[in-house]
Amino acid sequence: MSASQPSTSSLPLPPGKSGLPWIGETISFLLDPDFATKRRQQYGAIFRTHIIGRPTVVMSGAAANKFILATGFDKFSWRDGWPDNFKELLGESLFLQEGAEHQRNRKLLMPAFHGKALVNYVETIDKITDCYLAKWSQTGDLTWFPELKNLTFEIASVLLIGSEPGAQTTELSRLFTELTNGLFTLPLNWSYTTYGRAIAARDKLLAQIETVVLARQQQPTQDALGLLVQSQDEDGNRLSVDELKVQALLLLFAGHETTTSLIASLCLALAQHPEILAQARAEQAQIGMDTPLSIDSLKQMTYLDRVLREVERMYPPVGGGFRGVVEEFEFNGYRVPKGWQVLYRIPEAHFDEAVYPNPTSFDPDRFAPERYEYKPSDYTFATYGGGSRICIGMAFAQMELKIIAAKLLRDYSWELLPDQNLTLDPIPTLHPRDGLKVKFQKLAR
Ligand code: HEM
């Protein structure tokens, strides 16, 4: 592999097919979970296709990740990687921004998701989780995935857009579902179409967020939205009310389905590996089942850390990221023209045998210090993306996951119910096809 050379025009296009006229290979891309794996086996780490209306090059593996996320960063546009529906429904927010504008806004958003800010979120996450766990143990048999999604939505909406738990959050969740239904539909904006309803839902969500932003401006708080309202850079610049509204909506969008996916995969993996579950429980017992959850006590859970890293490796919620190509480039001897789109893939690097021996076995100890198969600098682990635009919510998500996991391990058991499809569907984010049916119980202590 080499980065872009002065002249690439004589190089061939990557191997692959364009599929049917206009529609290309979009249907296989959306319906076949092995779309990329099969073509990677046939063509290698870079192949050509035509999906979602554009000629597309799919690139996978650590070298491709490094090129797209870091060394070749300037050849790509985030904004051009998103379909138009996203641009309208999610507004002028971080996902669509680039260059100086992106840097300024990322800097203003960052403090709410790192370091000291996280300390203030522990109690809220702990309390909300308690309510859901108690409710589930009374229900007994449940389809867990939608319930986990309600939990993460409530945590995200309370912390990120200042919602009140209960009826208000339920209504926001309904509006949010209408909004996301509009992301992959025809953009016909009439009151009775899916897209029209999505636009109406977006407007109501933004109005709700604006009310809270104005309240936070009067009376600062320590939730994420409160911190974002107060955030300012070294020149005293702050986010305006309009900016805050769209950024908060984006954070809500980016921040809960992904987390739901990982928690569901964690619960599935632990149910399938009782010996690992037992070891993770033993760690909780050793720390003290009643030791309050805090940043410090979470830090002591080193075995749980390994389990979570292994879940992130084997079950990355996001399959990859689209980018527009703004400058022709060369990769592995092939030419990728300006105006095409690129999809970088996350899972392939995670199953590279040279880095992760027996990659399909669930083995948390591969992240133990003495084995340390994860090498952060070589893009072999890209669950949260990488480079300068790595997920802004990574530390927040990992803390949330750890709190929920610790509470589950301390006081609850879950058993997979028979007769269900446990395979995972990668679109839109990795999720169990039958919703993960379990018998959920409180443990006697
Ligand atoms: C397990 C949970 C999560 C996963 C797996 C995840 C995954 C990702 C990935 C893969 C990217 C990069 C996408 C690309 O390169 O195209 C990303 C970016 C991003 N994520 Fe996350 N994410 C998670 C949680 C969160 C949370 C909780 C938030 C917000 C509170 C969040 C906000 C964002 C934002 C704003 C970006 C764009 C960053 C930028 O453009 O500078 N994510 N995330």
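^ protoporphyrin IX containing FE complex. Residues 94-95, 106, 113, 250-251, 254-255, 258-259, 262, 317-318, 321, 383-385, 389, 391-393, 396-397 surround protoporphyrin IX containing FE (CB under 6 Å). The radius of gyration is 22 Å.
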